[in-house]
Description:
This protein is about 30% helix and about 25% strand. By secondary structure, the chain is α+β, with helices and mostly antiparallel strands. Strands 1, 2, 3, 4, 5, 6, 7 and 8 form an 8-stranded mixed sheet that branches.
Amino acid sequence: MKKIISVIFALMGFAILFSACGGETYADKLKKETKAINRFIDANGIKVLNEYPSNNVFAENEYYKDANTGVYIRVINPGNDDKPSREKKTDVYLRYENILNMLNENDTLATSNQQGVYMTFKYGMSSTYTGASSSSLYGSQMYYFLSQACVIPLDHGLGNNAEVSLIVPFASGSTYQQTAYVPLYYQTLKYRFTNDEPEEN
Length: 201
């Protein structure tokens, strides 16, 4: 009986070993992501900054790389003087234009939610920074596109109606990104702050 149990455990160990060898490792996925991001940066003539511009003014094609998260940020419009508050848990509403799968740049995951449903989170409440899978339009957007990376630009003093462009590695990305290991490029992400749902334009 002991021999049979030993053989079963040995076979299970071999099965696990072979299945691990046959697939991509996490290190392989990181290498693939790094290549995709570097290819995108080179193809689009992006200059990477190691220091964030104190005045939130970026030249064309300049992106700041956040050292802690690897997220690349470019401020298109810093917004007005109305700033969000972590303490007050400001409601933030997001609109986006053109989100690309960076592993396959021909794969546009979303073009716009300008006339659709906003993504939302409460600034300073990290539990609201990602979404679970859902069949609703709102839930689907939150699952695929909302992440801590969308919050990081606000920590640099951006105001209401600010617009940014982001390159988001999967480790800092949405629930979808972290399960599919896909880096995303956000051409435009626009912020609105209010205690009530903003009116449609």
